[in-house]
Specification:
69 residues, mainly alpha, transmembrane helix, membrane, transport
């Protein structure tokens, strides 16, 4: 079953890559990877405890606790 899933995933990847806009897929991938790498540290450590940041206070802690449990 494991080999079937890997085979289907690889086929889907190749299907989308070759029948879609391969150049656009590559451009978006490179752009997203660069944005991820350049903002990784600041977004990982930017907790801003003295600002009114409702999403950071509720969403991440709640889902982190849910995931850990």
């Amino acid at each position: 079953m494991y080999n079937l899933n890997i085979t289907l995933a690889a086929f889907l990847l190749l299907f989308v890559f070759f029948l879609g806009s391969a150049l656009q897929i590559i451009q978006v991938f490179v752009s997203s990877l660069g944005a991820y790498m350049s903002n990784f540290v600041s977004m990982s450590l930017g907790i801003q405890p003295f600002k009114d940041n409702k999403w950071l206070g509720e969403y991440t802690v709640f889902y982190l606790a849910w995931w850990v449990s």
